[in-house]
Write a structure and sequence with these properties.
Helix content is 28%, strand content 24%. The protein starts with 5 loop residues before the first strand and ends with a helix.
């Protein structure tokens, strides 16, 4: 029996920022197609790609898809780009489980920091949430929700959460809430 195709989102970290790690979206689409993926689409210039693959969302499948894409990018562009791959079910759960009133906030006020592995609250024990109010953060399944009412560019909590030592051993890539919702829509099964 053939495997039912699954739609995934690839979240690339740190491309097309300040002229560094330039990855044109047309070339990213071609790379994904070269890996055998279908229905490849990109969203914005910041490293969001959606594709269909004959890989069910089983244990390890997302990591294997991400590793193949990282290798392809390095081979084509000459630099390594950390990637996370997530299926529609996971992306929809992240949106549904958000502890902040997403419908009441502007997209720039709420962010999802996607993590490559689960983390425990102890990792963030050194950050006192009270000292950053009205900003706040909460952990979910391989995601950290960041509420930054003034936007990420001026967020002191966002700055504290972006310290490399805090995420040692993890790939972390942030998306504003508009992108979170768009990726849920783009990966949704078609009727």
């Amino acid at each position: 029996m053939p495997t039912k195709p699954t739609t995934y989102a690839a979240l690339l970290r740190g491309i097309n920022v300040s002229g560094r790690n330039k990855v044109p979206m047309a070339e990213l689409r071609s790379l994904l197609e070269g890996l055998g993926h279908r229905e490849v689409r990109t969203y914005l210039q910041s490293g969001n790609a959606v594709f269909t693959a004959d890989r069910p969302p089983a244990a390890g499948a997302e990591d294997e898809l991400a590793a193949a894409l990282e290798t392809a990018i390095e081979g084509h562009f000459g630099f390594r780009v950390p990637c996370l791959v997530r299926d529609h079910g996971y992306l929809a759960a992240v949106a549904a489980d958000c502890p902040y009133p997403a419908a009441e906030l502007e997209g720039k006020q709420l962010h999802a920091l996607y993590l490559s592995a689960p983390v425990t609250p102890e990792r963030y024990a050194g950050i006192d949430p009270e000292s950053y109010r009205p900003e706040g953060f909460a952990l979910g399944d391989r995601v950290l929700y960041l509420h930054a009412p003034g936007g990420l560019g001026t967020s002191k909590l966002g700055e504290a959460l972006s310290r490399p030592a805090l995420h040692k051993g993890l790939t972390v890539t942030a998306r504003n809430w508009n992108t979170v919702v768009k990726l849920v829509d783009m990966t949704a099964p078609t009727p």
